[in-house]
């Protein structure tokens, strides 16, 4: 997936100092892992957050959030968030929601 270097830098800054975070190049872009589990990523004009199935409806109720669908079939538990909306609310808010899910999984 193509990515926006500016959004990647914003995400790096928002994740700085958080324990257990690792950056990985995936799908032609960047994703960040929390203790080995995908947490979030960036694409052109939007962020991706893995919130899990239980938090998906909460995430989709937020401004700018849509289901992740890159194959014609939505990927449950993962949402796209328009960059402007995510930045307006604060990336920390979205990271916290995704970390509630990824942090509940055993380390890989």
What does this entry look like structurally?
A hairpin with a 2-residue loop joins strand 1 and strand 2. Helix 3 packs across helix 4. It is built from four helices and six strands, in the order αββββαββαα. With 108 residues, it is an alpha+beta fold. The chain has a single domain, classed as Aspartate Aminotransferase, domain 1 (Alpha-Beta Complex). Strands 1-2-3-4-6-5 form a six-stranded antiparallel beta sheet.
Descriptive labels:
4 helices, single chain, 6 strands, 108 residues, globular, alpha+beta
If you compute it from the alpha carbons, what radius of gyration comes out, rounded to the nearest whole angstrom? Answer: 12 Å
Please provide the ordered H/E string of secondary-structure elements. HEEEEHEEHH
Q: Termini distance?
A: 24 Å
What is the strand tally? 6
Mean of residue pLDDT? 93
CATH topology tier name: Aspartate Aminotransferase, domain 1
CATH level 1 class label: Alpha Beta
Structural class: alpha+beta
Give the % helix.
Answer: 25-40%
Overall domain count = 1
Enumerate the spans where pLDDT stays under 50 for 5 or more consecutive residues: none
What is the 3D form? globular
Per DSSP, the total helix count is 4
Domain TfoX N-terminal: 16-100
Organism: Paucibacter sediminis
Pfam families: TfoX_N
InterPro entries: TfoX_N
What topology emerges from the helices and strands here?
Layout: H1 5-15, E1 21-26, E2 29-34, E3 37-43, E4 46-50, H2 56-60, E5 65-68, E6 75-82, H3 83-89, H4 91-102
Antiparallel strand pairs: 1-2, 2-3, 3-4, 4-6, 5-6
Helix pairs in contact: 3-4
């Amino acid at each position: 997936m193509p990515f926006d270097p500016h959004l990647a830098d914003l995400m790096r800054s928002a994740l700085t100092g958080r324990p257990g975070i690792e950056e990985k190049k995936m799908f032609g872009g960047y994703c960040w892992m929390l203790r080995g589990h995908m947490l979030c990523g960036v694409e052109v004009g939007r962020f991706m957050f893995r919130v899990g199935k239980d938090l998906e409806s909460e995430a989709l109720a937020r401004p700018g959030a849509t289901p992740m669908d890159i194959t014609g079939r939505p990927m449950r538990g993962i949402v796209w968030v328009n960059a402007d909306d995510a930045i307006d609310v604060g990336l920390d808010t979205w990271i916290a929601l995704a970390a509630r899910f990824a942090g509940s999984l055993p380390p890989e």
